[in-house]
Backbone:
């Protein structure tokens, strides 16, 4: 409520007779003081009521928070009927809502209706049989969360130590030293069509305690022809367990069409605790058979350079990936044959391995639409895409038409959200 007080003060006290008594002059001063006090009280009450009208009440604040969560995390389809769909819908919302709350709390509240949070989680549960080691179980989590109200340049990450390129490597995620899950933030300091500079701050989530790491990474992409490109990545880091170090990576890619990809990659890491340079190289071929099925083959080797140059293991692997039952549910079958170096005798032995993986994806509508636009390259095609079909993760998609390959885009122009 706003109170209004109108006060009229007669100014005839200035014309009063100088011979009037003290009581008359005192009464005039009292009237002036009371009038001024009423004016001040009226203004204070009006300002307070205006502030109360502008400030959201507690139910209104809850409504705004609910609106942010609904905008970012609500189901776009009718509420699912089966217990499997209901469980997935519940988990999807539970994973999305904290990010939406964080973005709304630290971001600009006036823009909460403009751009929803983008969340993409991949949970990979793997069972592996090794000829020499027997059975083992592994779990790997990957997440890339966009926080548009905090900053379009900020990403919330759930990743692993070896995730250098920003792409999901999709390994089985067994309990290896370089496969520990990391949680942190990535800030994209600068981004162009051909280059990107970003800064990461992460901590390792493991039973052995926290292992913080800070890293700066620069990546440059150059088109070599209409369907080949080269990518150079350089990063420097400090980690509590490893000390200071640097990682260099080079990728060559051939993209003959939107469903096929051939990549050769070489990477080396040197740190205060490494055995010289820990290096890895592989040749990867990817073929998307249809939106639900893909095949990935890899031929690779890795090793170290100190005290002597050694190839620790050669390997070849074939992975069959298939979406089934739901757009967010996948299974993978991967036979692998390896030739590891015996650390004791120094002989090269053979080792058969087989991995079965079940992947569950949790994703809100903004992330799905963004990935569809990157894959299809057109808004009209996005609208026509069947909601029951998954969005291919590794297929080149519209990257085969990227102007970087043709060299007709300036470096200062943005290239969107490619490669996370």
Residues:
């Amino acid at each position: 409520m706003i109170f209004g007080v109108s006060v009229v003060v007669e100014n005839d006290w200035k014309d009063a007779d100088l011979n009037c008594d003290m009581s008359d002059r005192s009464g005039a001063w009292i009237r002036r003081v009371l009038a001024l006090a009423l004016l001040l009280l009226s203004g204070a009450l009006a300002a307070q009521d205006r502030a109360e009208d502008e400030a959201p009440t507690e139910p209104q604040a809850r409504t705004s928070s609910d609106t942010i969560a609904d905008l970012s995390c609500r189901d776009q389809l009718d509420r699912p009927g089966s217990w499997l769909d209901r469980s997935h819908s519940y988990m999807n919302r539970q994973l999305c809502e904290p990010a939406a709350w964080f973005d709304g709390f630290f971001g600009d509240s006036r823009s909460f209706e403009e751009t929803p949070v983008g969340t993409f989680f991949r949970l990979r549960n793997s069972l592996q049989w090794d000829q020499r080691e027997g059975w083992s179980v592994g779990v790997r989590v990957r997440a890339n969360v966009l926080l548009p109200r905090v900053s379009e340049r900020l990403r919330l990450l759930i990743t692993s130590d070896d995730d250098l390129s920003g792409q999901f490597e999709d390994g089985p995620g067994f309990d290896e030293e370089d496969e520990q899950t990391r949680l942190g933030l990535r800030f994209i300091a600068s981004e162009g069509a051909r280059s990107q500079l970003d800064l990461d701050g992460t901590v390792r989530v493991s039973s052995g305690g926290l292992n913080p790491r800070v890293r700066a990474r620069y990546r440059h992409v150059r088109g070599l022809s209409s369907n080949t490109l080269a990518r150079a990545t350089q990063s420097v880091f400090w980690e509590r367990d490893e000390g200071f170090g640097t990682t260099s990576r080079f990728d060559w890619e051939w993209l003959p069409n939107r469903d096929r990809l051939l990549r050769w990659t070489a990477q080396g890491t040197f740190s205060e605790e490494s055995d010289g340079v820990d290096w890895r190289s592989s040749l990867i071929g990817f073929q998307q058979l249809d939106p639900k099925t893909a095949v990935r083959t890899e031929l690779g080797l890795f090793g170290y350079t100190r005290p002597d140059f050694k190839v620790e293991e050669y390997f070849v692997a074939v992975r069959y990936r298939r979406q089934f039952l739901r757009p967010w549910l996948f299974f993978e079958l991967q036979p692998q044959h390896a030739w590891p170096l015996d650390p004791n005798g120094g002989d090269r032995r053979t080792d058969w391995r087989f991995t079965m993986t079940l992947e569950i994806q949790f994703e809100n509508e903004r992330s799905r639409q963004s990935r569809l636009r990157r894959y299809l390259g057109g808004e009209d095609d996005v609208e026509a895409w069947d909601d029951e079909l998954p969005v291919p993760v590794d297929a080149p998609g519209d990257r085969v038409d990227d102007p970087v390959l043709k060299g007709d885009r300036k470096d200062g122009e943005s290239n969107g959200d490619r490669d996370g």
